[in-house]
Amino acid sequence: MSTELSELTFTVSGRVARPIAEVYDAVADPEQLSHYFTTAGARGRLEPGNEVTWDFHDYPGRFPVEVVEAQSPTRIVIRWGGTATTAADGTTTATFEFESIDDGARTLVTITESSWQVSPDGARSAFGNCEGWTGMLAALKMWVEHGIHLRDGFYA
Fold first, then answer.
1. pLDDT mean over 11-16
2. Is the pLDDT of residue 9 over 70?
3. What integer pLDDT is reported at residue 3 of this predicted model?
4. 136 phi, psi to nearest 5 deg
5. Is the dihedral of CA 40, 76, 139, 20 positive or negative?
6. What is the pLDDT of residue 1?
7. What is d(CA 127, CA 13) in angstroms, rounded to the nearest whole number?
8. What is the pTM of this model?
9. Lowest-confidence region among 4-8, 47-51, 60-64
């Protein structure tokens, strides 16, 4: 039985040695996100109805982020613009899942993003975002566990 691939999707995950509520807040809070991920700043808390934008030194310009769902402290779903997407509005969907592990001492963070075309342009965009979210997880870990801004000076 052969199944045809209809869109490209990826999942990345990492463990952060902090309780789930603290890790969730580090992603949802624009002030914290600006310290370790959005190298040119984040505006708006990741909650439905809020006007949210992310800026990056390596990709200049303000990116609008639509918060589809926010269930503190376990899940955030966003939609934002992409290239070569399958969505009619040109967006992708990224889902952040937070799971308390090790009796609450650590949090497993899983990010799944989908909606790219099965094409060379779709693959380039998906791989680029996969790299970005992997870097975000590493930077999140360093920020929450050690207060280190891992991306400082990395891109600009």
1. 98
2. yes
3. 77
4. -60, -45
5. positive
6. 62
7. 15
8. 0.95
9. 60-64
C-alpha distances out from residue 41 to 27, 53, 58, 123, 152, Å? 13, 8, 12, 27, 12
- At a CB cut-off of 8 Å and minimum separation 6, what does 119 contact? 84
Alpha helices by DSSP H, the chain: 20-28, 30-36, 120-146
Write down the CATH superfamily of domain 8-146.
START domain (3.30.530.20)
Note the pLDDT tens digit of each residue in 17-36. 999 999 999 999 999 999 99
Of 61, 81, 79, nearest to 70 by C-alpha is 79
CB of 113 closer than 8 Å to CB of 81: no
Q: Where are the domains of the chain?
A: 8-146
Q: Any idea what the Cα angle at residue 46 is, between residues 153 and 31, rounded to 5°?
A: 40
Say which residues have a Cβ less than 8 Å from residue 102's Cβ, sequence separation at least 6. Answer: none
